[in-house]
Design goal:
By secondary structure, this protein is of the alpha/beta class. It has helices at residues 10-14, 22-36, 44-57, 60-69, 108-122, 134-139, 142-162, 224-239, 278-284, 294-307; strands at residues 101-103, 169-175, 185-192, 195-201, 209-211, 214-216, 245-250, 259-265, 268-274. The protein is built from ten helices and nine strands. The strands form two sheets. The chain has a seven-stranded mixed sheet with strand order 1-2-3-4-7-9-8, with helices on both faces. The chain starts with 9 loop residues before the first helix and ends with a helix.
Length: 311
């Protein structure tokens, strides 16, 4: 994924300088392709990244557009998928279609924190014309870029869940009942006919793998799955409800398969999904998860409404 505030640039994936000439770029691509090829001991996810990087900068036209969009050129950004506009909060006319019941502000806490820290990092008295400018974001410390990446991931999940329709209810940025830190939260709690789910929306800036029931990768810090399940258990006890499963959502490019059911962690079924497969999982449920319907659905929603607080 190359449009993430955390992701390596296409040049970094190819291990070449942004101002390298076309011949040097081709040599770097061939070398990285050999190094990353699974048949020669390389990593499949990295191999896919190398190919994607070449698609973005392998021709003069593609490279010029990519450079503008990522702040490698002095011209105004014009490459739509990575334009800074895609990092700004969305606005526009209200959507009048039937939507899921939504509570809370997805990504809100992290966006506010991002803006505060970005202004602090730039320096007092310095005019910050565009806090989402790609050239500026790329030079910011990783802790600041991670806040923006997480906010974008949560907002993307919120849009997908909203499209599921009126049979679903979702709470965003749910504060932990026991941990005062606003970052110790559940990104989303989703209730629908297929069950009750705790959802973690993440963007680590690159591919991840699963090892012994936990996520591993260059950008992964701590134990995201264990942390998610632990916070779900806290909320379940506070509300007197039972979760059907835990869902970790990542950008499509950062997972090896769209839906990967990982088994149970502390008795809770866990699935790792690419973003485009999230609605499928929420509609059909997880293997072994019990469906919720009728009066029980209403009862679970009422219990959660009584205890949910927001970060």
């Amino acid at each position: 994924m190359f449009d993430s505030p955390l992701s390596a640039s296409a040049y970094e994936v190819l291990a070449v300088a942004p101002d390298a000439d076309d011949e040097a770029l081709k040599r770097a691509y061939r070398l990285r392709l050999r190094q990353a090829h699974p048949d020669t001991g390389g990593d499949a996810a990295t191999f896919i990244q190398v190919q994607r990087a070449w698609e973005l900068v392998g021709t003069p036209e593609a490279r010029a557009a990519y450079d503008r969009g990522h702040g490698f050129a002095d011209e105004a950004p014009s490459f739509a998928p990575t334009d800074a506009a895609s990092w700004r909060p969305r606005s526009g006319p209200a959507d009048t279609r039937p939507r899921a019941r939504s509570h809370g502000h997805p990504g809100g806490w992290r966006r506010e924190r991002y803006l505060d820290l970005m202004r602090e990092w730039v320096g007092r008295g310095v005019e910050l014309a565009d806090p989402y400018d790609p050239a500026l974001v790329r030079t910011a410390p990783v802790e600041i870029r991670r806040l923006l990446a997480d906010a974008l991931a949560e907002e993307a999940t919120a849009r997908i869940v909203a499209d599921l329709g009126m049979g679903y209810t979702v709470w965003h940025d749910v504060a932990s009942p026991r941990e005062p830190d606003p970052d110790a939260k559940l990104d989303h709690v989703v209730l629908g006919p297929s069950g009750l789910y705790g959802v973690l929306s993440e963007d680590f800036g690159g591919p991840v793998r699963v090892r012994r029931g936990e996520l591993v990768g260059d950008g992964v810090d701590g134990a995201p799955i264990a942390t998610l399940v632990g916070r779900m258990r806290q909320l379940a006890r506070a509300a007197g409800v039972r979760f059907s499963g835990a869902i970790v959502v990542l950008p499509d490019d950062d997972v090896l398969q769209a839906i990967d059911e990982l088994g149970k962690v502390r008795g809770t079924p866990v699935v790792l999904v690419g973003r485009s497969a999230l609605s499928t999982v929420l509609r059909r449920g997880l293997t072994g998860a019990r469906a919720i319907g009728g009066n029980e659905l209403f009862d679970v929603r009422t219990r959660l409404q009584q205890v949910v607080r927001y970060a």
